[in-house]
Amino acid sequence: MTDDGTAVLGDLVMRVARTQRRRWREALAPWDLSPHQARALRVVSERDGVRLSDLAGALRIAPRSATEVADGLQGRGLVERTADPGDRRAVVLTPTEAGRRVQREVDDARAADSHELFARLSARDRAELARILHTLTD
Known about the structure:
With 138 residues, the chain is of the alpha+beta class. It has one domain (6-136): Winged helix-like DNA-binding domain superfamily/Winged helix DNA-binding domain (Arc Repressor Mutant, subunit A), CATH 1.10.10.10. The protein has 6 helices and 3 strands, in the order ααβααββαα. The chain has helices spanning 6-28, 35-47, 52-59, 63-75, 97-118, 123-136; strands at residues 50-51, 79-84, 87-95. The chain has a 3-stranded antiparallel β-sheet. A hairpin with a 2-residue loop joins strand 2 and strand 3. The radius of gyration is 18 Å and the shape is elongated.
C-alpha cells in the first residue's frame, strides 16, 4: 500500500472535529447546556414541537436517552411536555419562551464562534473547504 497522504488527511479531519467539539462545549458553558441538550433544544424549537420518538430519531440516540435529555431541558424550564392532540398516549415537547430565547442566544454564540474559527481562512479557502466537505459528507 502506498502512502498517498490519506491517513494524514483523516487524522487532520479528526483533529478539526475535536477542536470544533471542544469549542462548541465551551460556547455552551454560559447556559450550562450539554451538546445533546443544545441539539435537542434546536430540534424542538425548529419544529415548534416534537414527539420524544421523533427527537430520538433526529438526534440519532435511543428513546430512553432522548427522555433523559428532555427531562434536563424541562427541569430548566426550556421545554414543556403536552399530550399529542393526535394521540393522547404520546408526548410532544414544545419550547417555552425561555427555551426560544436560549436557543437564539446559543445560535448567536455558535455563529460568532464559527466566524472566529473560520476567519483564519480566506473567503476563497472557506468556499473551497465547504465544497470539499460537502463532497465527503454522506
